[in-house]
Design brief:
Strand 2 (about 45) and strand 3 form a beta hairpin. By secondary structure, this protein is mainly alpha-helical. It has a three-stranded antiparallel beta sheet. It has three helices and three strands; from the N terminus they run E-H-H-E-E-H. The N and C termini lie far apart (about 40 Å).
Length: about 70
């Protein structure tokens, strides 16, 4: 497993918190991770402990909003 550095001051969200923030389900979240190259990838703290960086999720939402406003 490769080492990934979490930026200092970053807020880590569990998949459940990401689903809650985006108002989406489990299948939708993991489908985005697998099939959407722009969607932030999780960082694994251990083999069964994925987390997402909240700032990356927020940036993704901003990009989506900007694309829809064009």
């Amino acid at each position: 497993m490769s080492t990934v550095t979490i930026p200092q001051g970053a807020r880590c969200l569990t998949p459940a918190k990401v689903r809650q923030k985006l108002c989406r389900g489990t299948t939708w979240l993991w489908d985005r991770v697998k099939n959407d190259p722009d969607f932030p990838k999780p960082i694994y703290l251990s083999p069964r402990s994925p987390v997402f960086i909240e700032q990356q999720i927020d940036a993704y939402l901003t990009r989506l909003a900007e694309q829809r406003n064009v």
